[in-house]
Amino acid sequence: MDKARLDFLKMDILNHPLFAEDTSISLTASQRVPSDAHDDMTHLAGSIWVNNLITLIGRNASGKTFAMKIVMGILELLLHQKSIGQTHLNETLIGQQPISFHVYFYGSDKLIYRDDLTITSHPNQAKQWLIQDERIWSKKVTKSMTRKAIFDFSTAKLVMDRQKLDGFQQSLLASDDSLMRSLIAQHHYQTQKVFDTFMFTNANFPFFHAADGQVPSAILAYLDPTIDYLFIETGKHDKAFYRLKFKQDEHEIIDNNFATIEYYLSSGTVKGITLYQYAIQALQSGGLIFIDELENHFNLAIVHTFMEYFSNPKINLHHATLIFSTHHADLLNDLSRGDQIFITRRLHSRITLGRYSEIADRQDINRAEVFMSDYLGGTAPDYDTYLKLRKQTMDLNHQDGAKNSIGSGTPYGQH
Fold first, then answer.
1. Strands 41-45 and 48-51
2. What are the beta bridge partners of residue 7?
3. Whether the Cβ atoms of residue 68 and residue 342 lie closer than 8 Å to each other
4. CB-based contacts of 132: which residues, under 8 Å, 6+ apart?
5. CB–CB of 112/104 below 8 Å?
């Protein structure tokens, strides 16, 4: 008998100093789900549908990467049973005041959970965080449950309370470990895998693991048709060994230093090889994969290919979810639903996450044009700022030109 599965639904960030109050990110559908147009969604139960594609879009420094890291950090803590210090939370928890989260999960045994988590800084050790309080609530899923009722826990049952553990139980739980590990063990849940690709955002080395060490020929042909094969083998002491051959060359390139191999490969090929592996693992397990700046080093055709892996039900058999950030507004028109899009903005020095469907979703308006026009506010570079930058650039050029002409003996252009 298959294990019941535990899937992430939503996270509320309640009092983080860099986020607006009650900031949320949710995978669940907030809009109506047509009966004939939901290939890029997963039906869990009743009215609970999950988007298989989620994007965060915003201008530079709007908080896209930071928001994704804090979600990954919480999921690593709760689902992967890591301690706080082993997750992205070390990079995203700041300040001296406690920070709280409400994290919602769906169990395939028809239960929804909410983990109310409060994390506080260590009183004596800088940059260390502890779990101050944690309560886990549960409620049953019913067929008549509406979309609005999914996250209403006013009548839910309290199933675990960190403050009510006995001495023996507390001794088994570290101060930076979550109660979720106990819940998962009790219910024998298979947890959703989380794939973190952030170290490869600007990848300068490929990471691929296969039984024979060979990177699949199809992905190589797609990324660079001139490559015949690429083997990434592991030798003694886990030291990588590379073998690369191009179709027009008789001899292969062999080296244990990837810098040699990298000379012959484009950045897009390197990143594509790595992300392909993670995408396959996510698709096989029905996991969550986080990719920062999906378009970085790629042309749009490759970006669309990665998106299709998760929107095509013939490929995404296990209902994996791709969560990615982008600067490319045109990608908004390639998503089928407004509730798949989160607009990140900095308002009054705080990060906000707003669903496009709740801000300005109209089917007769081009989403990319709305975003770039700054109709939403805070999504396009400020024009006054652009003019100031333009003037400063001109002034610097003039200063540099004046310096270069001093002591030259003759005016520029005269000989």
1. antiparallel
2. 106
3. no
4. 98, 118, 119, 120
5. yes
Q: What is the pLDDT of residue 413?
A: 43
pLDDT digits (tens, 9 = 90+) for 287-334: 999 999 998 878 888 888 999 999 999 999 999 999 999 988 888 888
| Cα(149)–Cα(292) distance, integer angstroms | 32
In sequence order, the β-bridge partners of residue 41 are 51
6 and 192 Cβ atoms separated by less than 8 Å: yes
Which of 266-298 are b and which e, b meaning 16 or more Cβ less than 10 Å from the residue's Cβ? eebbbbbbbbbbbbbebbeebbbbbbbbbbbbb
Tell me the helices (H) and strands (E) count for the chain, helix number first: 11, 18
Give the integer Cα–Cα distance in Å for 26 and 14: 14
The reported pTM is: 0.85
Instruction: Tell me which residue of 192, 311, 215 sits closest to 269, measured CA to CA.
Output: 215
Q: How many residues does the chain have?
A: 415
Residue 35 and residue 222 in contact, taking contact as beta carbons nearer than 8 Å: no
Long-range CB contact pairs, 171-174, < 8 A, 24+: 174/83
